[in-house]
Records
---
Amino acid sequence: MKPESKPDAASTTGQMRQAFTLLHRAARPDQHHLSWAVLWLILAALLEVLGPIMGKALIDEHLLPHHLDWPRMAGLLAGLVLTGWIASGLRYLQLVRLSGLAMRSVMRLREMVYTHVLLLPMSFFDRAITGQLVSRVTNDTEAVKSLYIQVLFVMLDSTIVLIGTVCAMAFLDWRLMLIVLALLPAVLLIVWLYQRWSAPAVTRARALRSEINGQMAESIGGMSVLQASNAEQRFGQRFAATNENHYTARLAELRANAWLLRPALDLFNILLLAAVIFLFGQREMTATEVGVLYAFISYLARVIEPLIQITMQFSQLQQSVVATARVATLLNEGAAQEHSGQAARASAANDSSAPAVAIRHLNFAYNPGQPVLHDLSLEIPQGDFVGIVGHTGSGKSTLLSLLLRFYPAEHGSILMHGVPLDDIDNERFRAEVGLVPQDPFLLAASARENIDMGRGLTQEQIETAARAAHAHDFITALGQGYDTPLGEGGSRLSVGQKQLIAIARALAGTPRILLLDEATSHIDSQTEQIVQTALDELRGKVTVIAIAHRLSTIRDASRIIVLNHGRITETGAHEQLMQIDGGLYQRLYLLQQLAA
Ligand code: ATP
Ligand code: MG
């Protein structure tokens, strides 16, 4: 994930293209709404331009010459009222269409982003920053809405009104129109100044706001560590500084608006007005020109207003384009390989003789040049209970990640029940392999939902799994049994209990292979006994591969594999490994005996 990027000239066109391609994709099912909204908008803007012309006719042809032709005057008046009324109606229709379209686009986009994130490979999350990712899904997709409503349509609207007004002016008096146009470069200068002044402030304010979110999320996530290390004050100060910077940036943005936009352009309006009146004074005003003066004065306001609107939307446009482009970039992140090994299905179905796991000459590195696993070869028969031990950082969890297909193996191969890992289709793979991770992850939901994980299991299946994991007793002792909410991250449970729930969850899927990463590292000896019994009971039915720091957990394993710096250095049953004098396993075991 890239850090929040600032727009620069070189990348702007690319971002524009990216943003609008995505916009098009999100709005495609609503294409007809878009066409209608544009049509209503154009009609409304044109009707609004017609108003002053009718006003002029009323003044010049009837009021001034005192030519009171009532039917025609009533017609003109009615036209004046009616065009205004119809224009508001059209604007209402346009807004409803457009808002619906924009909100549906946001909805679609959000769904696209979320489903995409769910499919991203694990290696993506090694780099991703949670706060930024969340901001993609919530804030950046919302920017699409403002791109539609605030930016594109305001710009389109203003442009149409501007062009229509200039045309109407030319129709009334082309020399006057030329004078108004001649003064436009000065307006453009103000617009340009505003851009220079306000755009950086807008960008800064936005980046700082995302930092405020980030700091908040980080602090809440690590609150216990934060308070325990007495860092409240430091974090408070850091937050206050960021907050203050944000305020300053917002203020700068506001100043640019307050100085340039309204006052400068309003002043301009007055100058134009003076010029028009002066010109009328020069030419001997004939009676017929009062109406033109009225119409021109009405139009002047309409020239300035769209310009103010367009100017104001420019920085918003920039921000929205950047945000939308960020969403597009995220959507372009390669999804995890979709495994659909149709061919392998049949052959894998009932190969009871093949080993559950066969690893051949496996090498792996997270970062090129820093190998983590070296030439690993290993065969695990079905129904076996295998333990993996080794120092911190020796590559145990990495080996499990590869078995779980979170990362692709670079060199060498992994076969499960005789089928290469890549050839097993996703659904089958996830059903066959269960995981109890190093940090049990619980949803803020009930015990039942945490075991079920959306698989739609029956109460019986859930209870059987909970019993097998020896979690049934403590779950029923909770206030509402299986329906007890466990709190965010399972905060109502002890770590050991979370671990047991995680085991029950893995077993509920009736996996053929169960992987455990340090399932006993957080629990007391008594609970460890429970887990040990649970694992023992699985022997022969499920292939169990368990990483354990606490060697007593895997003492009874049929085979123990000792990893050292990414290589298998010893393998055998507990008794065999204890025979190796000076061996790593022997040393680790004796150390733990001493400590106990
Ligand atoms: P522990 O007993 O502490 O859990 P482990 O044996 O499970 O250790 P691994 O997590 O497999 O160790 O890590 C093996 C090596 O790979 C370590 O040097 C670690 O720094 C590195 N490593 C682990 N995960 C990543 C990652 N996502 N990106 C880059 N390097 C990683
Ligand atoms: Mg580990």
Note: The beta strands are 357-365, 371-380, 385-390, 411-416, 419-420, 433-436, 513-517, 543-547, 559-564, 567-572.
---
Amino acid sequence: MKQRTLAIIKPDAVAKGVAGKIMARIEEGGFTILAAKLIHMTDAQARGFYIVHKDKPFYASLCSFMTQGPCIPMVLEGDNAIARWRDLMGATNPANAAAGTIRKDFASSIEANAVHGSDAPETAAFEIPYFFASLEIHPR
Ligand code: CMP
């Protein structure tokens, strides 16, 4: 089943200069990048994006991390894209991430964990339009 997911190459990975390597893994993984842009989020934008975590102890620190530099949100499309992108990313905490996953290879900590991916279709339905207008998404 063809599906779309929202991916973000986070500020730690952009700052390290590994965004291109991560995009290569995305393309090699059989995903089509339908939209992508480099943005530097404001605190309000980060807080809105991660609103589901507003009561978590790491919320303030997470929002501060996500605004420390530019990040690259993308819309990925492919068969079973939500679960497959999560598999390619690896576990949230890189200490638990499997060999060969993006987080194992590029993440620094549970917070600075290189990439983000929607965790369910309903989440993708909120996250994709959070960053992209329909005219910025290029089906093909
Ligand atoms: P992400 O997949 O973007 O979803 C929420 C983010 O919060 C997570 O990746 C991490 O960057 C960050 N985070 C920081 N601490 C934790 C934690 N203890 N558990 C889960 N996520 C955390």
Note: Residues 121-131 form the longest helix (11 residues).
